[in-house]
Amino acid sequence: MSYRLGQMQTKTIALFLHQPKCSIESGNGIITALHPHYKFKIFSKNLVEDNFFDDVDCVAFPGGIGDADTWEYLAKANLKHVRNYVRNGGRYLGICKRIS
Cα–Cα 20 to 30 A to 1, which of 33, 37, 57, 69? Predict the structure, then answer.
């Protein structure tokens, strides 16, 4: 466990949002339930920088109305980064969606 100046360090969740496929409402539910214990970095279908997930403790994909094909299309730009993150021991929270 990491401590800084006698306080527990806040962990960070990378949260994917793209209305309505990964809904804002579901994302807000995740934030409401886990804040203030976690900080959040929001990302979407646009390509993130190579080091975006370096300081992240979990990647989360909230639920929505998407199907697997649409989800693959929306997440395509960052799937390589997410897969590498998980392969290297990173945590993944998929609500109604697993990483393939």
Answer: 33
Q: Is residue 70 part of a domain?
A: yes
Residue 26 lies in a domain: yes
* Partners of 13 in the β-ladder: 40, 58
DSSP 65: S
Q: What is the pLDDT of residues 13-36, one digit of tens each?
A: 999 998 877 788 889 999 999 988
Asked, for residue 5, whether it belongs to a domain, the answer is no
**Beta carbons of 15 and 60 less than 8 angstroms apart:** yes
Range of the domain at 78: 10-94
Instruction: Estimate to the nearest angstrom the gap between the alpha carbon of 82 and the chain centroid.
Output: 9
pTM: 0.82
Beta bridge partners of 42: 15
